[in-house]
Write a structure and sequence with these properties.
Layout (H helix, E strand, L loop, with lengths): L2 H15 L4 E5 L4 E6 L4 E6 L7 H13 L9 E5 L2 E5 L8 H16 L11 E3 L2 E3 L7 H19 L5 H12 L1 H4 L7 E3 L8 E4 L3 E4 L5 E3 L1 H10 L5 H11 L10 H16 L1 H16 L1
Antiparallel strand pairs: 1-2, 2-3, 3-5, 4-5, 6-7, 8-11, 9-10
Helix pairs in contact: 3-8, 4-5, 4-9, 5-10, 7-9, 9-10
Length: about 290
């Protein structure tokens, strides 16, 4: 069986699980726009060689965020070992009103909390696994589950310098001092870069592709800042009105950006390793 045939069979199975059929498919690769036999439009991702529980993790994360009633996420129509089918979102572009609504929604979503730091399901960031084992304390969770594994992977791939690795290790040893006032576990998206915010109508922002878990609420906001998000100042101001941020949060942005930078270094090379080195130095400087 060829790859295209296998992918179509996967799509047919996803549609059948959603109680319908595939009428037409647009696109190639892992992501497809699908018109369903019942008239709905959907977004499908198929990956024959996805890691075990990859799409289950996405589906459970979306459901966990949706359960707050605070943010918009796409409805999951069905998922399987090799794919996921979700409601289609029509994008119209960012606006100040949508950004402010997103900030308020994130504040409410975070405040819904989590049982502990981590999650009760396997995690992934991109194609890399995440250690989601539950922990009671954020410094231990961030050091052991979000920094150390990706530092080692980046180092093994020659993507971070010896100085950079040493700085990250210093950060890990000082997280209790660097992390600011203790915060309870927040309900995080977990991979909230600008590409995972879809600006829909009317004036709405939809969150997609989560690495959802209980974590530190400043992490989601730092991720929005990392690669640039439209109207970020409006998002943060609206957030702060609903759930005021702890003093010094701006100084801690590099600390919370270390995890995604190390992930990018492990996946894409030393340019991100250099950024991780600078972020670690900035975190230590406070």
């Amino acid at each position: 069986m060829g790859a295209l045939e296998a992918e179509r069979l996967e799509l047919d199975g996803l549609a059948a699980a959603a109680g319908t059929s595939v009428l037409s498919v647009v696109g190639a690769g892992r992501s497809r726009r699908v018109r369903l036999g019942d008239g709905r439009e959907a977004f499908a991702k198929v990956w024959a060689h996805a890691p075990q529980d990859f799409f289950q993790a996405e589906a459970r994360g979306l459901a966990w965020l949706a359960g707050t009633g605070a943010v918009d996420v796409p409805d999951v129509l069905s998922y399987s070992r090799g794919g996921i089918l979700m409601a289609w979102i029509a994008e119209v572009g960012p606006s100040p009103a949508a950004a402010e609504a997103l900030g308020r929604g994130l504040a409410r979503m975070h405040s819904c909390g989590a049982a502990a730091f981590g999650a009760e399901w396997p995690g992934f960031v991109g194609t890399l696994p995440l250690d989601n084992r539950l922990r009671d304390l954020w410094p231990a969770f961030y050091a052991e589950a979000r920094l150390a594994p990706y530092l080692e992977l980046a180092r093994s791939r020659g993507a971070i310098s010896g100085r950079g690795a040493a700085l990250v290790e210093q950060v890990m040893s000082r997280l209790e001092q660097l992390g600011g006032p203790p915060e309870p576990p927040s309900r995080l998206h977990g991979d909230l870069w600008s590409g995972n915010v879809m600006w829909g109508a009317p004036g709405s922002a939809w969150l997609v592709d989560p690495a959802a878990h209980g974590g530190h609420r400043e992490t989601d906001l730092a991720m929005l800042a990392l690669f640039g998000t439209p109207y970020l100042d409006r998002i943060v101001a609206a957030y702060d009105e609903v759930a005021p941020l702890a003093a010094g949060w701006q100084r801690r942005v590099p600390l919370h950006q270390l995890h995604p930078l190390l992930v990018h270094a492990a996946l894409f090379g030393s340019s991100y390793g250099m950024q991780a080195e600078r972020a670690a130095a900035a975190a230590l400087a406070g």
